[in-house]
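To illustrate this point, what follows is a protein record of this kind.

___
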Amino acid sequence: MHRDTRSIADREAKLEALHATLTDAVAQLTTEAQWRRAIDFAARFRRRSFSNSLLIYVQHTAAFEAGRVNAPTPTYVAGYGQWQHLGRQVLKGQTGYMIFAPVTRRMVATHPDTGPWRTLDRGEKPDPVETVRTRMIGVRPAYVWDVSQTDGDPLPAPPRSRLLEGAAPPGLWDGLATQARAAGFTVGDAADADGIRGANGQTNHTDHTVTVRADMDDAARVKTLAHELAHVILHGPDNDEAGTHRGVAEVEAESVALMTLAAHGVDTSRFTVPYVATWAATVSAADPVQVVTATFDRVRTTALAILDRLDTTQVSDGTPPPLPDVSPAAGSSATTPRVPDSPAAAASRETQGVAL
């Protein structure tokens, strides 16, 4: 019993340290450049939550600055067991990056819409009339390692788009336009900015139209279309989660665009994102760190949904190829779902259908 108590206390201490690290990292996202770097990094680790991608980033940066790893940024990240599965071994002395991992329970109910739900005991089989779901009830600390911390069999290089200056990734415009049309919007051109109030693009939820300037190069046009598609998805009048603050909406849309293009290997340094501190601090009755975290999760979820529907060549998402997209064995610490805001939120979130 004493050993269990110490184990629980150690886990809670690690979780508190993780939350402190995460809060400090989010608090540093106060300038355009810092926010853009965070978006670009998240695009390359888009299968992970904002919280875990940021935790990986800050821990790897610290390891590089201390000379413990030779790569300035992580490339592929996986759990200990997953690296072994790929024929690689974590090097001796390499400390893993601590992230949040789920604690789940198998729940059953005869009437899934009304409940009540009960926990399925170990070894217990559900009744044929019962519905089984896996629910997330909390988080625990887990560890992952970058490929630079491992040695072994080489990994195959994934395909990557090679773009000429001003060119757009092949198929990206058509893919984005198809998604806008599927949402009931017509995609059209304006001769120049004068036709759309001086903007590069415009989304009209009343007329269900998306308009993009025609006098820009292809890369700028496709970035603008991604921005407007984010407005279509996130900021419609029927979307209960759509923020009423204009600055938040614009940062969300632009961040989705940056993440979408970064996932296609397009340099996003030319694009402007308003200072995060400015708009986050203007949202009343909310802590700026909470605003940034919630906004980033909406950005990541939206960009990931867009990217998953595209038939385009995209850069790696941080998962080592050819790692199978399956649930890891117990203790492998391979992937993690979104981190809940609180234990209560964790208890209510189901892991089924959540992108890890």
About this structure: The longest helix spans residues 2-27. The CA atoms of residues 347 and 353 lie 16 Å apart. Confidence is low (pLDDT under 50) at residues 325-356.
